[in-house]
Give the backbone structure.
Amino acid sequence: MKTRTYLLLMAAAILLPVALAFWIGLSMLLEWERESRINSVREMARAKSFQIDREIAAAEASLRGMAQSESLRTSDFARMHRWASAINASHPWSWTMLADQDGRALFNTLVPFGAPLPAAPGKWAQGVTPASGTRVSGYFIGTLAQRPTVSVDVAAPVTPGKHYIISQIFDVRYFERILNHDNMGPDWVVGIFDAAGTTIVRNRHAHSTVGKPMRPDFLAATRASNSGVFRHTTHDGAEVYGVFTRSRSSNWTVVIGVPVAQIEAAARTATLYAAMALMLLMGLALAVAIFLGNKLETALRDAAAAARSLGRRALPRPEPTRVEEVDALLTGLHHTSEALAHESAVRQALQEEREQLLLSEQHARRMAEGQSRAKDNFLAMLGHELRNPLAAIAGAMAVLEMPALKPEIAHNAREISRRQMRHLTRIVDDLLDVQRILSGKIVLQHARVDLADVLRGCCEAKKLVDAGNHHWTVEVEEAWIDGDRTRIEQIVDNLLHNAIKYTPAGGHITVRGRSQDGRALVEVSDTGVGIAPELLPVIFDVLVQGPTSIDRAQGGLGLGLALVKQLAALHGGAVQVESAGHGQGSRFTVSFPLAGALDAGAAKGTDAEPAANAA
C-alpha cells in the first residue's frame, strides 16, 4: 500500500463513521438522557424505601426481644419500662408502649412508670394478634402524645388465650432524616404516604400537608403498581415527574417529585455536549492525519538510525507503522539485532550458571559438613548420657549380688537403680517427643487449663527434687488457656529443669504467671550461668546447648528447649529468652492465648435477650 493511498483511507475511516454516528446518536440522545435521569431518581426512591424497611425491621426485632423476655412473662412491667426507656434514650422522636390485648395501655416510656394513662380500650388492638403478625400502622394522632405518629405493633403471647401488645411509636418527624440526600436538588419534593394514602412526612410545606390525603389520580397510580413514574402538578403548582415505590413491609409509599425543567435541562445540556464532542472529534481527526504524516517521516528516520546502530546494541521491537516498506525494513533489522543479542546473552547466561553452580556446591558442602558434625556431637552426647546411668545401674546390680548384703546398702542400691532408670526414661521420652513433633504425629488433648494451677504443681514437685539447693520465688495468678495439660506441664517442667541444672547451689529461681494483652505469660528466671550472645538465636534448635566438656557434668541432649518451643507453637504460643551474658542468669518467657472471654466459674445468665437498637 502506497503512502498517499494510506493517508486518504485513514482520513475517510475517521471522518465518515464519526459523522454517521453523530446523526444517529443525536436523534436518540434526548430520550435516553431523560430516561437515565428518571432511573437515577427511581433508584433513590428505592433506597429510601429500603431505609424505611430497615427502621421498621429494627423496631420489630427490638419489640420481639421484649416479647420473649422473662420480665414480660412475670409481669415485671417496671423492669420492662426501664429497659425500653434505656433503648429510647437516644431517640427523642420514638417511645415504647405496652398494652393488654384490648388495647389498654399498661405503661408508656413517654411518661414515668406509674403515671396515669388512657384507660379506654382501642379498636386498633383487634388487628394485632399472635396469628396476624407484626402490624405497621398508618398516620394517627397519639392519644397521649397528641401529635402525629405512626407505630409498629407486635403481639406477645404469655398464656393460651392471653397476649400483650408491645408498640414502638414514632413521631412522624423521626422519618424526616430519610428525606435528605446529597444528590437531591433544592426544588425536589419528597414525601412518605401510609397505606391509605395519608401524608406521613414531607420535606416541603410539611405543616400544611402532613395528615392530608394524596390526590385521587395520584392514589390510583400508586395502587396500580408497586413502583412507577407519572407526570403531575404539585400543591405548589410545579410540574414534576413523580417517581414512587412502595415498601413491602409497611405498605408505605415513597414519592420523589423532580421538576420537569430539571430533567429536560439535563437532556438539553447533554445534547450540547454531544455537539461539542463532534467538533472535538473533527478537530481530532485533522490532528491525527497530521500526526500520522509526521509519523511516516519519523519511521523512515528511525530505520536509518537502526541500520547505523546494528551490531552495537540490541534494537527494540519496532512499532508497526502500517507502511509496508518501512515495516519490512524495521522488522528485518530487529531480527538481526535479536540474533546478535541472543548469542551474547547465551554466553553471559552460561557464565552466570557456572558461577551459581559453584556457589551452590560450596553451600551444600558446608551444610553437609555441619550436619555431619551435629550428628557426631549428638552420638557422642548420647553415648555419654547412656553410659553414666547404665554404669550406675550395673554397679548397683553388682552390689545387690554381694552375699550378706546389709538392708540399708541394698535399699540404697535399688534407689540408685530407680533414679538412673528415670533419667534414662526421660532421655528416651525426649527423643520420642522430638521425633513425633518433627513428623507431625503428636496429638494434643485440648481442655481448659488453669496455668496457675500447673505452675504451682510443677514448682512444688521441682522443689522436692531440688532439696533446698536453691531459693525459690513463685508468683502466679489465675489464667485459663486451652491446651493439653500434660504437654503444658512438660513445657514448664523442662524450663524448671533447665533453671535448676544451670543455676549453682544457693542461686535464685523465680517463677511468675500472669495475663497480659489477651495472652497468658509464664516467666522462669534464674541467677545461673547465663547464655552466650552467639547462642541466643539458636538456643531453641534441636541438639543445641551451651559449651560442655567431655565429662558431661551438666548432662542432657539439648532437646529440652527444642521441645518447649515446638510444644508452645502447637498451642498457638511462643517462647523467647533473654540473657545479659555469661554469669548473668537468664529469663525464659512462654506466652499462650487466653481461652476466650469466659471465666472459670459458671457464667450467670440473664432473663432477657439483648435488645436490638430501635433507631
Remarks:
- The longest helix spans residues 324-400.
